[in-house]
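Justification of computing resources. Each target in the renewal requires a structure prediction run like the one illustrated here; the chain below, 337 residues long, is used simply to show the kind of job we budget for.
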Amino acid sequence: MKPHLIVIAAFPPAQMLDISGPLDALTAANTAAMALGRSAPYRIELATPAGLPLATTSGIALNASCDLLRPDLAADTLMLAGGPGARAMPRNPQLVDVVGRLCHRSPRISSICTGAFALAATGELNQRRATTHWAHFDEFAACFPQVLIERDALFIADGKYHTSAGVSAGIDYTLAMIQNDLGRSIALQVARDLVMFLKRPGGQSQFSAHLTAEVASGDAERFAALTPWLEANLGGSLSVTMMADHMAMSPRNFARRFKQAMNVTPHSYLRMLRVDAARRMLSDGTLSIARIAQRCGFASTAAMRAEFAFHVHVSPEEFRARFQSAGSPPARPLLAA
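Resulting structure tokens:
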């Protein structure tokens, strides 16, 4: 079977991992397929303006394999890599026109990290849902007010246009794409080779509850053992007293030390963990809302809806509708299984 051509388009200076992450995942998929006696399903090209060597933010240049400006360039899947060059690309009318024409000729278009700036500059994302790196949400929204930005997703599929969040999320997106194209077994083998989760759901937040707390903390290590215990017991009745007992501390001393270390109260932290767990179940499963509420330790479905309204600003039902299928781009595979 003719290989599926993936063109990774990049603009200097580019973020190295936005290119090497998907590239390594796709190469591992080829290796896994050939180990099963199949031909390599993917052919990958790195395209740069004029085919020049690509400067990266890490200081290591990459050799291009084709010229992005070539009039007859076509791709089965076009990937736009991020980096400062991608964010500056909208100010280059020639590149905007070239990428726009290439989008029209490509059945599937994706952006990695701030590659969304290059894609949005073409107008192809207007009135479509998209995401990008969290640090550039406001900049992106100001530049492209007609794009429906999703600030709480790792990757989004809207028709043939797919966008993913900050650097490592490009690998999550590529794993989801491989699973869709080639099946779960090959995607699982790729994930094992890369020592990755097979797939973080597209609707998983760019920040987990414990990472958000630890970023703001002054001494996260003090309570590092508490989070796994809480996550393993979310379905039960948890209290500050129980947390303190687990840490062999008095409730009053525990609550004071936890707030000092994590910059959030134990009760608020537990609420965040429950919402995180519910989001994962909503975007990567078929359990009912009521069952998810029970498993995550909410007192009722109404209580879970109240927590979602506070933390996520949408209902659990709306969250599921937005993100349950986000991890399976596109709806119909482009490659035979």
